[in-house]
Here is the input.
Amino acid sequence: MARLAALLVLTALTASVAAAPAVAQDQPEKAKQEKKPKRNPDVITMDEIDDVRNQVSNGMEIVQRLRPTFLRTRGATTMMSGSSANATPRPRVVLDGSPHGDVETLRQISAISIMEIRYLSGTNASTKYGTDYGGGAILVTTRR
Here is the structure.
């Protein structure tokens, strides 16, 4: 009787060990399926904005929180301080396809109305909007 009980326990242990590798193999597949898609560093999507919408009040706060790199100046710099002729251009804001002003105008755009914020490099912005956009462009799309 004791041998029969020992045999049953051994059989149960062997079955559970044999099943364990199958579970371990399924876990990487589940992890791949649950993996979030890689975010675009030049776009703040509505899903990302919705995640912080209750914590911010305007477009500037959204950008500062989610993509502060949009606000960094890029391009030529000067060694002489105070020389505005060679100053690094700052990004300009385009609201629903129309020029809106400099970066500070993001403060005037309510966070509730924003659907997407996209950054264009200086080269791409200059090509699309003209030479005033050498510092890039921050494109804001609102709910119309």
Remarks:
- DSSP finds four helices and five strands in the chain.
- The chain has a mean pLDDT of 81.
- Helices lie at 2-34, 46-52, 59-66, 122-129.
- Strands lie at 43-44, 92-95, 98-102, 114-120, 137-142.
